[in-house]
Each structure stands twice: as structure tokens, then as C-alpha cells.
Fold DUF3048 domain-containing protein.
Amino acid sequence: MKKLWKFPLLLTAFLIVGGCSNNGQIEEETETETVEEVFVEEELAEAPSYTYPLSGMEAEEEATHRIISVLINNDPAARPQTGLSQADIVYELLAEGTITRFVALYQSQFPNKVGPIRSAREYHVDLVHGFDGMLVAHGYSPTAKKLLSEGKVDHINGISYDGSLFKRAPERKAPHNSYITYEDMIQGFVNEKGYVITGEVPALDFYENEDIHIVGNKASEVEVNYLGKNHIQYVYDEASGYYERFNGERKTVEYETNDPVLLSNVLVLETEHRVLDDQGRRAIDLTSGGRAILFQSGIMNEVSWENRNGQLIPVHDGEPVKLKPGQTWVNIVPSNPGIKEALSYD
């Protein structure tokens, strides 16, 4: 964006004055000086006024592409995944047993290909609904299927498009081998379903880069465990200013390029989990709020979380806590045994 600034320019004009005397002779010519102030306009470049709503990064124009949310498999057989490094936000929640699943939200950039894709649960649908996002999944639980059939969120599902929009990777075994491209996502949303893919996008609160000053307790290494078995680690690198993520001993990287996932914010929050059936499906409370810990710049702070307009927001003294621009990872752990048992840091 450019802004017009007006600057005064002084123009000097010389006026020659002459006249006649009473006897008709020409009097001596004299010069008088007048000054006129004229304003001219000059264009000056102004700092970018747009940012991406889920990452806080600078944008060249207003970002109106609706959020695309993808259910990504985190079974050991599905690692490393494709497309995680381009997500603005990743929510990590338990699926069955101690295996987690990711809800990856894309808005500032979109992966050429993403996966492996797995099935949706009711709480996944609720997360996506809070952002008015579009959902990509391959399969669904009975409750999630009901919500989707009722139109709670716009979606495409590999159950209906397996082998067409969703492709199987031959080097991996089902159900850990379902992938989709961005081109096919848009084909499904627009041409198959007729969804509108632009609109107003909810925005989170971010620091402006020059205002970032994080205070708190030092914590450059963070470990999150799910029921004592599935261990995730985040390691802060001061040189880059980002956290790297590890699942066990294995760094979280892109499958095809080996590029690491780099995070600006790590939020760990606790909430009630209930096992629903003998397959280990769960109900997860995403509305009541509770305890949380936020990690930024190698610093930790105890905060709370609240559900505001369907979005899980870190809060301190009733006010939203600002995030650093960049990618955010949210680990949602059971309140039994609780965040103190699930979390350690150094």
C-alpha cells in the first residue's frame, strides 16, 4: 500500500511593475517579489498493512481464502508425514489408545500434497467448525458422520473419493497411505460440492515483530507424553528462534524433502477425556476451558485456555495471550492424570 504525502513547494515569481508619471514620462521599471506556496504530492512506501490471520506473518493483500483443515495420521507407520511444515496451526489429540492424530489448519500457504489422511472424530469436526474451515478426512466415526451429514462443516471425504481425489501411495500400507493434492482438494470443494472457498477468516492475536519481548521461566526443552507412552519433544534453537519437534527419537520432518517442522509457539492444554467404546474412541471436552502452558522463545508461562467463538485461546487474567508470528502447535492432553504428569521441561 502507498500513501500520498503533501509537501509545500515555494514558488518565487518576479513581477515587473511600471507606470507613468504625471508628465506622461515612463517611470523606471522596478521588480517586486511575491512568494506562492504550492502543494505537490509524492508517493512514499508504507509498511504492509496485512497479515495472515492464523500465522501473523506479513501478507501482500487481505487473506480471504477459507481455512482448509486436514486430518493427518500419526501412527508410527505414517511417519514422516507430508505437508505438516506448511500448516499455520496443528492440533494434536488422542485418537485410539495412545496414538494421536493431527488437525492441520492451512490458510497462509497450502501444501502441494498432504497426508497420510485418516478419519474424523466429533471433536475434530468441532475444532474445524470453530474456524469456519473446510475439512478433508478419510473416514469418520458414527458421531462425526452424523455431524458431517447434517452440514456442520463443509467437507470432502476419502470414503466417497478413494482412488479419484484421494490417491493411495504404493510404498505404504492402508490405512496409512491416503493422500490428496491441493488441486484435488479445490476440485472436490468447488466442482464436486459447490462450496465457496473465500470469505472472512477468524484471526488470532499476534505480536508485531518489533514488540516481541517474552518474559517467564526458561524452558528450552519440552516433553509431552500421552498416557505415559507416546512421547513428543520440542527443542528450542536460539539461533533460528524456532522449536523443532520430535516423536520419540524421530524428528518431525517432511517425507519427501526432509525439511523440519519449525514452530514459533507450543501450547499444551488439559481437558476432560472419556473413552466411549471398546475400540477406544473418545469424547474430548473442548468447551470448558482449563489449565495450559505456553512455550515461546525458549520461555514457558502458565496460562489458561478458553473456548472463544469455537477457538481454543490462551488467556491470562481474562485477556488473550499474544502469539509469536509463525506456526503454532497445540497439544491437548487428558486432565486425568493432568498436565503436570504429561509435561516436563528444562
In short: Residues 2-45 form one domain. Confidence is low (pLDDT under 50) at residues 1-45. The longest helix spans residues 182-192.
